[in-house]
């Protein structure tokens, strides 16, 4: 199989953080010997892409930058060293584009924690373009016949919440609270949690998000915009507090509340990355309740394969809406206002 690769393509590019996002024609990149070139057909838009554009984290992005790290497409070229992909295979671009593979963290399969991690849509041009390069070792393998628009959100949101649920180490029948449940990570978090046999309490704002969370399998929905005493409401609904909390909101306050309402011996997992934030935990309460606060950062290759397997078996199917790549600025606006239900997926042909 061979493909004709154009010299130029459409992409969304910005030259400075917070500056204009321009939909324009740029050159198609050439893969290094260790990389594949993916014709990206669809890309999810993660809230991380909004952080990257704003530049609100203590880690600089490359500039100019093509964002995006939930890209699904077809391998159209490969470097001379690539052994694990063939031309025509389906492949996914994820947040971790490549790592050193030699440090103590890479050796343990904690590749996202590598100090030399190369990040799609952050330090490496990502999936908001029609053709993108990806390190062949880290690129995701997607089975043929998979719907590429539907699978795109799994590549970051799905992998991340799946790994966060593994980090919480809960047993079937236990309660998990998902804070930020109506967004991209949260909706998938509900579905993975249900598939893992957990009871889900969803927290987000507004009736539409509540209806969606319930439809996806949450038993209880708590509306943070209406609740008078959120800690009490959550503890009452779960008979003493959830055994675990997956924090995927972009709110420092929501994270602080989760440390309060979590059950004794519970696990608070931090995933959402609000800018300039700290977790506030009463040392006395944390000791007496023996609560664990844990960070969880995307997932490794094994987590990716497992998260994709749940998708391919039909256990999770993120609610998503497809719009054209050129619509990225509008998607960012809606995301910043907290108005997105599930995920927006960009069709790179439009
Ligand atoms: O590896 C990681 N740790 C990782 C991977 C991927 C994404 C971390 N993230 C981070 C993103 O950078 C972002 O900070 O997770 C966060 C959520 O990403 P997302 O799911 O892509 O964002 P979204 O679709 O905008 O959803 C966020 C939801 O949080 C709700 C919003 O209403 C929205 O539905 N929310 C907010 I903002 N404040 C809330 C509050 N106080 C809240 N929900 C409950 N309580
Ligand atoms: Zn992401
Ligand atoms: Zn490393």
UniProtKB/TrEMBL annotation:
Domain Enoyl reductase (ER): 18-346
SMART domains given in the database record: PKS_ER
Entry GO MF terms: alcohol dehydrogenase (NAD+) activity; zinc ion binding
Catalytic activity, EC: 1.1.1.1
Top-level lineage group: Eukaryota
Cofactor(s) this protein cannot do without: Zn(2+)
PANTHER family recorded: ALCOHOL DEHYDROGENASE 1-RELATED
Protein name: alcohol dehydrogenase
Organism for this UniProt entry: Brettanomyces naardenensis
């Amino acid at each position: 199989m061979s493909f004709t690769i154009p010299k130029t393509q459409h992409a969304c590019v910005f030259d400075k953080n917070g500056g204009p996002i321009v939909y324009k024609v740029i050159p198609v990149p050439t893969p290094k010997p260790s990389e594949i070139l993916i014709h990206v057909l669809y890309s999810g838009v993660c809230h991380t892409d909004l952080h990257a554009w704003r530049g609100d984290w203590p880690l600089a992005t490359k500039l100019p930058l093509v964002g995006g790290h939930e890209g699904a497409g077809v391998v159209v070229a490969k470097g001379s060293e690539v052994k694990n992909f063939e031309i025509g295979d389906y492949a996914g671009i994820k947040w971790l584009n490549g790592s050193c593979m030699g440090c103590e963290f890479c050796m343990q399969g904690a590749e996202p924690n590598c100090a030399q991690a190369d990040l799609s849509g952050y330090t490496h041009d990502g999936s908001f373009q029609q053709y993108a390069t990806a390190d062949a070792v880290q690129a995701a393998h997607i089975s043929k016949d998979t719907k590429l628009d539907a699978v795109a959100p799994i590549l970051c949101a799905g992998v991340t919440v799946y790994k966060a649920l593994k980090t919480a180490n809960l047993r079937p029948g236990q309660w998990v609270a998902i804070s930020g449940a109506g967004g991209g990570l949260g909706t998938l978090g509900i579905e993975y949690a249900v598939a893992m046999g957990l009871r889900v309490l969803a927290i987000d704002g507004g009736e539409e998000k509540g209806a969606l969370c319930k439809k996806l399998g949450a038993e209880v929905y708590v509306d943070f915009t209406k609740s008078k005493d959120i800690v009490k409401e959550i503890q009452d609904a779960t008979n003493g507090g959830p055994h675990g909390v997956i924090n995927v909101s972009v709110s420092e306050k929501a994270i602080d509340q989760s440390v309060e309402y979590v059950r004794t011996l519970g696990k608070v997992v931090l995933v959402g990355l609000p800018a300039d934030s700290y977790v506030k935990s009463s040392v006395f309460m944390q000791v007496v309740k023996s609560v664990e606060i844990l960070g969880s950062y995307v997932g490794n290759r094994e987590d990716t394969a497992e998260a994709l397997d749940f998708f391919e078996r039909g256990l999770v199917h993120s609610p998503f809406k497809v719009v054209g790549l050129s619509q990225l600025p509008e998607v960012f606006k809606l995301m910043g206002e907290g108005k997105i239900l599930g995920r927006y997926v960009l069709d790179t042909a439009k």
